[in-house]
Amino acid sequence: MNIFSQIYRLLTNSLMDIPRKDLVFLLGFMATGKSTYGKSVAKRLGWRFIDLDTQIERDSGKSIPDIFSQLGEAEFRKIERQMLEQEVSHSEVPTILSCGGGTPCYGDNMEWMNSQGFTLYIQTPYPILLGRLKEMRADRPMLNKYSEEELPIFIQDLLERRVPYYLQSNMVFQTANMSKEAVSRSIAEKISSRTSNLWK
Q1: Which residues contact 195 (CB under 8 A, 6 or more apart)?
Q2: Cα–Cα distance, 29 to 103 (Å, whole number)
Q3: Quick check: 88 and 42 in contact, CB under 8 A?
Q4: Whole-prediction pTM value?
């Protein structure tokens, strides 16, 4: 880390162990659009964008489905937490970090993210999620074992179990009846409004 990066971190954190205003974790269920919105919002703000699952795949040399099938979910969650901490510790510039759907629901991940930056839950109505997941279930290791009849039940049950973790976020953003463009623009505006007070 060079001297300018050190000064930047010291100023933004005010020499205290407080959550960074310029580090935003995007949270939400599978198929919410975290990566799509994250890229768009980061571009609008001129921030760095990180997709946690993509980083895991690059670092391990394996796809997420392969990690699940070969190592199991418990091992994947360990790898996920390690990568989460690594990306946060190496982040020296304003960053949008898109997390996996289950990231906040394991160990103390949610508490830890809230202590490091700003958490934003992208809340998408169940019918929309179900429609999207039906189309992409072949690429989702948690879904491809369920039949057409079983899938809605599984998704609703999993969503209900994960929502309490999501609701611990600093902000809940509801996407119902909004276009993708409107969602990205509104999230960017809310983040920009928060960080406008970065130096105050």
Answers
A1: 21, 22, 94
A2: 10
A3: no
A4: 0.88
